[in-house]
Amino acid sequence: MIFGVLRLSVPLPLRGGENLSVARASYILSPMMLLASPGFFNHRRPTPNPPQNVGRVPRPRNAGEKPDTSLFTDTLTGLTESRDQKRMKHSNANMSSQAHKKDLDCRVIVVYYRTVHNGVLERDDGVPFSKEVLMAAQQCSSTVPFRMTLFGWLMSLIIIITVFLVSCGDDKATESELPTTVTDIDGNVYQTVTIGSQVWMTENLMVTRYRNGDTIPNVTDHGAWVALSTGAYCNYNNDTAIATVYGRLYNWYAVNDSRNIAPKGWHVATEEEWQQLEVSIGISPATADSIGRHGTDEGGKLKEADTTHWHSPNTGATNESGFTALPSGGRDTTTDFLALHECSFFWSTEEHDGVPQGRALFRAMWFDESYICCDPESKKEGFSVRCVKD
Questions:
Q1: Cis bond leading into 313, ω under 30°?
Q2: Closest Cα partner for 207 from 166, 167, 259?
Q3: Which of 148, 149, 167 is nearest to 29 (CA)?
Q4: What does DSSP assign to residue 349?
Q5: ω into residue 50 within 30 of 0, thus cis?
Q6: What is the pLDDT of residues 284-341, one digit of tens each?
Q7: Whole-angstrom Cα distance, residue 110 to residue 164?
Q8: Is 383:250 a contact under the CB 8 Å cutoff?
Q9: Residues 267 and 347: beta-carbon distance below 8 Å
Q10: Is the pLDDT of residue 180 over 70?
Q11: Would you say the C-alpha torsion 14, 15, 21, 25 has a positive or negative sign?
């Protein structure tokens, strides 16, 4: 009962299908649970020895004589209580399920007790009760219901407080490690990660429709792409197989469209949110709010580790943040597609107010550098998009 209250009162998150806090606390709390069991220090043990008169043969009876049950009086002590008395005991006592079952067995013996014949107790149907059954019945009936002691209540309270403290200390530390996903309007599923107080996608956006269902144009021709002043997307080298790994490339007009390209409950990362991410991995606020090179090794904390997707040497890549930046390259207004396996480009929603006009801010990380680059670029460029939870 106490354990059930704990589980309801302290919901603990899971990792790997296991309740970490309860599992960790069980080593400490198992003996405490035993000591705090209701009636651990306040119950009567079952009778250790069987009654002495079990099995004694009564005198033979004559025809028409009523059964002689006097020799079984001691044996059946505690068993011949009325059913109403038994029910009252069970309704007012906190008995264990096993003791309850045994007492029901005792009731069966009392109900079927009728006659004595040839030295054994018989039921109405003629099937005899053995001495072992009588002994077991005597023992089970001698166990009185558990009663919660003051010590038991105090120990229960200690257990509740201890589990609560353990869960608070452990679950907050592991909350960011719990796997979560988000799904866009096309059914694409993205893994997410908590970095600081933000929840980011760990994969590049792949959606082909705005949140309201309108189609985002897929523009493959380079000249048509450069002429655009409205939202559009493309696949690197117009190859959908590349897009399944690295996501799609979007111009800034799609990023800024009021119909939203982010899944419901999410949005494209703003400049303030990019700065907050950089500060959380070690870049100073003043540097994060500037144009140019940010930090020293902080870009490596965002890049996917190893060279599965990145060209060697993938300098400083540790991905310790869990952001998992991929080298998806981009679409340039002059040379078309470039830098696959070499660079990550990510749009910010903020326009750049400098000269020339028509530019917006982005972040970039390179295969041979470990810093983060923040620069303005033409809104017509095709870059990757990462979203943040609202």
A1: yes
A2: 259
A3: 167
A4: E
A5: no
A6: 999 999 999 999 999 999 999 999 999 999 999 999 999 999 999 999 999 899 999 9
A7: 48
A8: yes
A9: no
A10: yes
A11: positive
Q: What's the rounded Cα separation, in Å, for the pair 198 and 321?
A: 12
How wide is the angle at C-alpha 114 spanned by C-alphas 111 and 119, nearest 5°? 125
Determine the Cα–Cα distance for residues 136 and 113; give it in Å rounded to an integer.
15
Give dist(CA 271, CA 278) in Å, integer.
11
Residues 72, 121 contacting (CB under 8 angstroms): yes
Region of residue 194 (left: phi > 0; alpha: psi -120 to 50; beta: else): beta
User: What pLDDT is recorded for position 157?
Assistant: 80
What local confidence, expressed as pLDDT, does residue 355 receive? Answer: 65
H-helix or E-strand spanning residue 338: strand 336-340
Cβ-Cβ contacts under 8 Å for 21 (sequence gap 6 or more): 10, 12, 163, 166, 167, 170, 171
Phi, psi torsion values for 179, nearest 5 degrees: -70, 130
Helix spans in 41-96 (H): 83-92
Which tokens belong to 319? 């991905």
What six digits make up the tokens of 101?
């079952």
Which tokens is 276 given?
Answer: 């907050």
What is the residue whose two structure tokens read 């009760």? 129
Buried b (16+ CB within 10 A) or exposed e, 123-149: eeeeeebeeeebbbbbbbbbbbbbebb
Residues 6+ apart with CB under 8 A from 337: 236, 237, 329, 330, 331
Query: What letter does residue 378 receive in the DSSP assignment?
Result: E
Q: Which two tokens stand for residue 147?
A: 């009663």
Please, which residues have CB within 8 angstroms of residue 86's CB and are 6 or more apart in sequence? 103, 107
Give strand pairing partners of 387.
Answer: 268
Retrieve residue 284's tokens: 């100073």
Q: Within 13 Å, how many C-alpha atoms sit on residue 139's CB side?
A: 12
In this structure, what are the phi and psi dihedrals at residue 12, rounded to the nearest 5 degrees? -115, 135
Using an 8 Å Cβ cutoff, are 324 and 200 in contact? no
